[in-house]
Input
Amino acid sequence: MLKYIFGIFLFTISFLFIYIWGYKRSQTLPKQWQYKLLDKSKKNIKKELNKKGIISYKRAKIICNKTRIHTVKGRLQVKDLDKFTSNILQDMIDEKTVTKKIKNKERYYYVS
Output
């Protein structure tokens, strides 16, 4: 009898541990995916900048649109391109990796 109670207790503890671990993971996973998508987009924009030395806002938007990450739920990509691209380029300006210049009402970014 004591053997069965001990078995049920161990099963409950292990189930509780797995449940808590899964709950915490489900809370942090979307942010991890967002950071992964942000880093991959930045890397692709930097690669394009190093190749050509200049990039327009429209070209950066196209690069961000093509960037995808593979997750358990499938592929993820950016939904709000304007906001995402603006945030990435502003972060790069703040890090002083690019400089922004406006020519003919078009935003261009240069390697610093």
